[in-house]
């Protein structure tokens, strides 16, 4: 049996009800504040009265127009951040692996390869087909990395999964660049998709992914109690009456759709799925029924914050959220690795 | 098993090993010679030999002496460096997937070079120096971060993967910011290409190789001991930490200098070691065979990239396309059998 990866003294199963409620409320307030920052701050900062006027439907001044233009990207940041965080949480639960993250596991590179194949060979560049391809590619990569990572002695250890993910990413990326090299236009489209951003958000694209993300989120929510049993190990979970294989399959399907849909609109964004669930567990405990909403809130907050920071640091240019999250996330990843005992890697 | 049988087996393996290395070297010489002869104009062996010996041959002196010869020399030296550097890491970390391509050292060189090209508009020499510094700094950071109450290879690999993810996103960012002419330079650099070969590029690479290739090869036995684990190595009389730091330093310098000369030629550092291990069989000294295989890979891939298709592809595209399925195959095989080359 695999060793429990969360030392019990670090993350309690569940905090008292009051603490949980306060934490969730705090998460909501944080998201609300960041939404205000996201529509208010940017290359051109606007006043609070302009924000209110713009949200009420006025679009007379430049400042109000700027606010209106920032609303879709704010909504998209919330959606994508929440989706990635919940996806990462489900992956960590399914694989019982503290390093699980769509980016680390090479799931995003599967989406990238599928999208590029679609553009290059089949001329599929409509938003619908892009999303379908991204989800399909994510699913293939996820299944492949997990299967390969669990081969052999010791099962799916963090080291084997991370190496399998990194190796798969390297291999798929090299295929992507080989496909793109002779196709200049495809390279131009792909270059901006690949970097991971919410700057190109439009209401059309949001309307396209929001239902998909919603359905997948419901699937994950329904498996949340089952994830608690999974954390005890397959034997104990089975003994408790949990249908382990079914729970795991549904949670994984939800996680992959969430990640694929988010990736299809915003490009690969690494580390959100890794950082947020860890943070959430430290705050609220390991009960997935509570961890899930908190992760969604914190994921939305992280992506909003990353987007705002990215807009402010390099004015008048923008640093895409994917870069900001990688710069924040990698040190966090290293911290998690250093925290584990060598034997558990 | 009797001791005579063991000795006989060892002799047989040594013979096999020598034969393989000899054959590979012959293959390198043949491919090297072919790459000097073919091109826009074909020159016969006689003309090529006269150019190498210093005679002035109209046309050939420039095409062979200034274009094809430095290109082939750089291909060989870079291949040796990538092969030996990669095999050092793979052996030391006891995992064929733990090549510098995967654990972030190549990413360090790439990120530094691309940032230099895009934001500082540096010259080719300055970019090479920056790539060298980037690779060394990344290796140092990964090594230091992976120490926590002692060294652990698994921790080093994981931290390398995290650092690589961060650096790759910086590279992607720089590419997205790049003006289109810088983008082309940066992409060409990232792919790994021998198109900008000249004697000025070859000279520093050759100097470093002359120093470090024998030095690293002499450490082969210590490296094999390290692969047994720190305790076993220490009981064999190896000064574990000193040897490890020296090996990392040597391997990273070789890799970084080669990367500075050609850009990161995809997956050569990763493929050479496992291929060499298959060819010569398991044994303690994998570094020299890995270097030979690396050189052959780069020379062959460059020939294929230049002449096999209608368009000329940089060498890195060819090794990348070859390397990707190999990487997947090796990933499956490694996990199934539980590690080791």
In short:
Chain A contains 13 helices and no strands. With 345 residues, chain A is mainly alpha-helical. Residues 1-10 of chain A have low confidence and may be disordered.
Structure description:
The complex is a heterodimer of chains A (345) and B (341). Chain A is an all-alpha fold and 345 residues long. Chain A has 13 helices and no strands. The longest helix of chain A is centred in the N-terminal third of the chain and has 34 residues, at 62-95. Chain B has 14 helices and no strands. Chains A and B meet through helix 6, helix 7 and helix 13 of A and helix 6 and helix 14 of B.
Write the layout of secondary structure elements.
The complex is a heterodimer of chains A (345) and B (341).
Chain A: H1 17-40, H2 48-55, H3 62-95, H4 107-122, H5 127-150, H6 158-180, H7 184-194, H8 203-230, H9 234-239, H10 244-266, H11 272-284, H12 288-313, H13 321-339
Helix pairs in contact in A: 1-3, 1-12, 2-3, 3-8, 3-10, 3-11, 3-12, 4-5, 4-6, 4-10, 5-6, 5-10, 8-10, 11-12, 12-13
Chain B: H1 3-37, H2 45-52, H3 60-92, H4 105-119, H5 124-145, H6 153-177, H7 180-191, H8 199-218, H9 220-226, H10 230-235, H11 240-262, H12 268-280, H13 287-307, H14 315-337
Helix pairs in contact in B: 1-3, 1-13, 2-3, 3-8, 3-11, 3-12, 3-13, 4-5, 4-6, 4-7, 4-11, 5-6, 5-11, 8-11, 12-13, 12-14, 13-14
């Amino acid at each position: 049996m695999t060793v429990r990866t969360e030392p019990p003294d670090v993350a309690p199963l569940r905090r008292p009800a009051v603490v949980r409620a306060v934490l969730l409320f705090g998460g909501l307030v944080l998201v609300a504040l960041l939404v205000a920052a996201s529509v208010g701050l940017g290359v051109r900062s606007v006043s609070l009265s302009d924000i209110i006027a713009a949200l009420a439907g006025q679009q007379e001044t430049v400042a109000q127009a700027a606010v209106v233009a920032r609303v879709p990207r704010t909504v998209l940041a919330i959606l994508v951040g929440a989706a990635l965080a919940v996806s990462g949480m489900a992956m960590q639960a399914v694989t019982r692996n503290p390093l699980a993250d769509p980016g680390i596991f090479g799931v995003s590179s599967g989406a990238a390869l599928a999208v590029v194949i679609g553009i290059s060979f089949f001329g599929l560049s409509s938003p619908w087909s892009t999303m379908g391809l991204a989800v399909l590619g994510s699913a293939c990569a996820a299944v492949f990395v997990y299967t390969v990572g669990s081969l052999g002695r010791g099962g799916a250890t963090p080291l084997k999964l991370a190496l399998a993910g990194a190796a798969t990413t390297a291999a798929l990326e090299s295929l992507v660049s080989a496909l793109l090299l002779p196709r200049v236009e495809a390279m131009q489209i792909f270059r901006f998709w690949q970097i991971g951003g919410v700057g190109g958000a439009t209401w059309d694209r949001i309307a396209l992914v929001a239902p998909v993300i919603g359905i997948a989120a419901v699937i994950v929510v329904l498996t949340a109690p089952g994830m608690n049993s999974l954390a005890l190990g397959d034997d104990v979970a089975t003994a408790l009456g949990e249908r382990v294989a079914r729970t795991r399959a549904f949670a994984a399907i939800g996680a992959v759709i969430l990640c694929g849909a988010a990736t299809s609109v915003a490009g690969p964004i690494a580390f959100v799925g890794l950082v947020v669930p860890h943070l959430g567990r430290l705050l609220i405990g390991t009960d997935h029924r509570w961890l899930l909403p908190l992760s969604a809130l914190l994921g939305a907050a992280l992506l909003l914050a990353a987007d705002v920071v990215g807009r402010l640091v390099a004015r008048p240019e923008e640093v895409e959220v994917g870069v900001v999250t990688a710069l924040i996330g990698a040190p966090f990843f290293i911290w998690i690795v250093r925290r584990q005992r060598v034997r558990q890697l | 098993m009797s001791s005579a049988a063991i000795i006989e087996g060892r002799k047989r393996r040594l013979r096999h090993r020598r034969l393989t290395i000899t054959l590979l070297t012959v293959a390198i010489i043949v491919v090297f010679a072919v790459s000097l002869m073919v091109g826009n104009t074909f020159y016969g062996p006689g003309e090529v030999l006269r150019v190498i010996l210093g005679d002035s041959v109209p046309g050939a002196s420039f095409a062979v002496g200034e274009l094809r010869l430095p290109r082939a020399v750089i291909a060989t030296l870079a291949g040796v460096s990538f092969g030996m550097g990669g095999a050092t890491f793979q052996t030391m970390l006891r995992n064929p997937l733990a090549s510098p391509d995967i654990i972030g050292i190549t990413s360090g060189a790439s990120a530094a070079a691309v940032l230099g090209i895009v934001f500082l508009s540096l010259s080719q020499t300055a970019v090479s120096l920056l790539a060298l510094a980037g690779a060394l700094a990344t290796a140092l950071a990964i090594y230091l971060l992976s120490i926590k109450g002692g060294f652990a290879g698994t921790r080093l690999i994981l931290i390398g993967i995290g650092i690589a993810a961060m650096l790759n996103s910086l590279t992607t960012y720089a590419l997205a910011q790049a003006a289109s002419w810088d983008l082309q330079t940066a992409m060409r650099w990232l792919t790994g290409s021998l198109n900008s070969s000249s004697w000025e590029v070859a000279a520093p690479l050759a100097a470093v190789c002359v120093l470090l290739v024998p030095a690293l090869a002499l450490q082969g036995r210590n490296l094999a001991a390290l692969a047994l684990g720190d305790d076993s190595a220490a009981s064999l009389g190896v000064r574990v930490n000193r040897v490890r730091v020296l090996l990392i330093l040597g391997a990273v310098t070789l890799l970084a200098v080669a990367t500075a000369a050609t850009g990161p030629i995809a997956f050569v550092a990763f493929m050479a070691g496992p291929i060499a291990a298959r060819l010569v069989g398991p044994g303690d000294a994998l570094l020299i065979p890995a270097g030979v295989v690396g050189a052959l890979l780069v020379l062959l891939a460059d020939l294929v990239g230049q002449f096999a298709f209608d368009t000329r592809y940089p060498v890195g595209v060819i090794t990348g396309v070859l390397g990707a399925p190999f990487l997947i195959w090796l990933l499956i095989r490694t996990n199934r059998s539980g590690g080791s080359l």
